[in-house]
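Input sequence (313 aa), recorded before submission:
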Amino acid sequence: MDEVKVIRRRSGGGTVFHDRGNVNFSVIYPQKTFHRDKYAEMMVRAIRKTNPRARVNERHDIVLDQGPLLERQNRSDPNDTHRTSFGFSESRKVSGSAYKLARGRALHHGTCLLSSPNLPSISEYLKSPAAAFMKARGVESVRSPIANIIDQPEVKSGPDTSAFQYQIVEAFVQMHGLNVHELSPSVRSRSDSGILEGNKQIASGILDERLAEIDEIHREVKEIQARVYLKAKQGVIIEARISLFEDARSAEEATFAGILEKKRIMEVENFWDLFENLSEHDRSFVVNMEQEIRHICAWLDLMLGKITKYPVP
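Predicted structure, token format:
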């Protein structure tokens, strides 16, 4: 697969794939008016200017009903954003959302598959080889069939990304009774110290302590020749337990684990590098069990998305 950059966000939910055919949206508003469907419904009104099959489903996702056009007497109210006039026995997801509530404000942001050229391969990018070995505290995502908004029979010529973004802006101003000319980029957002610090934290993988319920991740991985247990919080390995083989001495296991602890996973290019610049005493430990350590490092690289230095068959 091609090299794809991974960016961690502050809100919960599953991993999303972003390319030039996907439009992301974000809305921040008072927490007292928070409702998961509020801006999903707004997005449906924007999408329906292009594709009438869009609706909000019971999981607060936006889907396109794939069935045939219903008989006139069975068609829904055009203003109902939770039903369409098409058969809904099968639907395909075009938008998923994530949320965060903090300090009296609500953040709702989501994706919108307008015209992704990578549609056939997105599911492969989102598969994790470590899924079977990982335990995480957070919101589990549900895999669903996906589609592009413009790849439908009713869409003769879909909007480009800029035109679609304008449709979303129009839906927003109509929802709030605004004038589109009242909207302008915030100058403050470019220089606000809090926003800049937040951007810096996300870029470095450091996240707020208050996100512990999302960011404390337990990874329990097993392999034929070893047992490896890693516990990470906010992307930092805070506990590591290694059993290399049955007759390994506890001192050797402790040395291995100590090398892994306090390392930020996002900053590790590959796990073998951690063992190359050790003291002479610890280096002798590596030499004695080099093959076993390389094997485990290569496996950890595979599980955690690293480019391994010494692949092991």
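Checked by second reader. The chain is about 25% helix and 20% strand.
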